[in-house]
């Protein structure tokens, strides 16, 4: 079965350099290379094959010059130099499995940026795929109720909140203020010793009743009625045979003033 390659990046021009051995563990420097005289010039392709990623260096005819298998990025297979963003050190491998380190670089910084982004995106997607497979392999949690299984829920009583007391109350039941717009009725003043009758200007004094028993033969209702009419309309007293003192005495002692 033929193996298919997926192309991630193609750069038509790349420079290859022979590099001296590393002098320290700090990293490589492009200034130590002969940057003006590259040892080989060709094109660069980043491809994937069966979850493996490769950097392939090919000439203009498409013949393979060298390839770099990448198992992680950043890692030992592809390492940026310390003094430039346009150059890298890659680990190439031949068919027999022997490894060698060479330097590669680009004339434009955007080409080196594209190489970084393509490698980072590839390994991020591979990491997500691995995590997804691990989740699918884990047994699913069975949260369903078993036969005869029950649960109980204890709902506590909610605490009763105290109702706020009206301002100014000192306990007990207070009186509510009248609603807005209502009128408070005005109470009439208590009767005084002097009170005009029906708006007349001069008060009428009723003499106190005489002491002693009142004879039933001398008391006539008509005299009392005439006395009331005289006070109301101010007309002359009606003629009667009953003395004035006896007629006045028929008025109860508790009435000092008459008011209609």
From TrEMBL:
It comes from the Eukaryota. CDD domains: PHear_NECAP (cd13228). InterPro entries: NECAP_PHear, PH-like_dom_sf. It holds the Pfam family DUF1681. Residues 154-222 are annotated as: Disordered. Residues 4-156 form the NECAP PHear domain. Residues 212-222 have a biased composition (Polar residues). Residues 176-193 have a biased composition (Pro residues). Belongs to the NECAP family. This is Adaptin ear-binding coat-associated protein 1-like.
